Amino acid sequence: MTAISSAGLTKRFRGGQLAVDHIDLRVPNGSVYGFLGPNGSGKTTTIRMLLGLAFATSGQAELLGVPMPDGANRVLSRVGSLVEGPAFYPFLSGRDNLARYDAADRTADPRTMPARIAAALDRVGLGSAARKRYRHYSLGMKQRLAIAASLLRPRELIILDEPTNGLDPQGTREVRALIRQIAADGTTVFVSSHLLAEVEQVCTHVGVMRTGRLVFQGPLAELRRTGAARVVVHTADAEGAVKVLTSLGLTGTEAGPDEASAALGDAEPERVCAELVHAGIGVRGFAVAAPSLEDLFVGLTGEGFDVDG
Length: 309
Prior knowledge:
Blueprint: E1 2-12, E2 18-23, E3 26-28, E4 32-36, H1 43-50, E5 58-63, E6 66-68, H2 72-75, E7 79-82, H3 94-103, H4 113-123, H5 139-150, E8 157-161, H6 169-184, E9 188-193, H7 196-202, E10 205-210, E11 213-219, H8 220-225, E12 230-235, H9 238-247, E13 251-255, E14 259-263, H10 269-278, E15 283-289, H11 293-301
Parallel strand pairs: 4-9, 4-10, 7-8, 8-9
Antiparallel strand pairs: 1-2, 1-3, 1-5, 5-6, 10-11, 12-14, 12-15, 13-14
């Protein structure tokens, strides 16, 4: 069962620009799915199509098993979203803004509005700031209020577009903790981002976009396994170490001034080290180095990511 799925989802703008190119999304129920990619890679356009805010040129998409945009009236009450930043009245308090937001929802019960607003504000840590005017909120508080708006009703799916964009480290931590809390309650969270810290600390699954195409999708652990580990030998005899590594069938050997390295493949590190010592190579240090998430993303997209927020 998937919370979000698409098949061949494509968006070509009137000028001919191909913004999203035949992507097949599979977002498992109960997951925190990080939708990642550099700015301009098609993340927001995809989200707008998923929510029915933009029409696809071709392909299909479903939210909670309901086709979009035809089923928008049936499913969007079960979906909370924050797209392209929050928009509230600056002269109203946080609570009054949520009241206006809730009043616009024809499916919401006005009799339970006060209790639901109070619960949503408490959930995002803004209960004490309920009477404070929105213009006096910090950026982190504004983002949390926007998330509170998406939590006024019980939701099965929350879609957040760059929820930590422009926030300072404290605001980023606040929103990240809130995402964890929402996910812990059983809600599927789909969050687009270009910050690797959100992936490492929050997400269970990832989809990586590059110039409109989905170049990887799967559990975060699977992404880590796509990177080939390398064995690194610190030695004064780097050339001799390379010969031994090559004789063991290791590929991609490299020699530097004081070290040699190679792709480990299926070889056992203990055997590699023992063979080096047996061959008379003076081993000062021996390590197995796995590529960082940053290295993996750069390899997938050809562009760098912000490592933290």
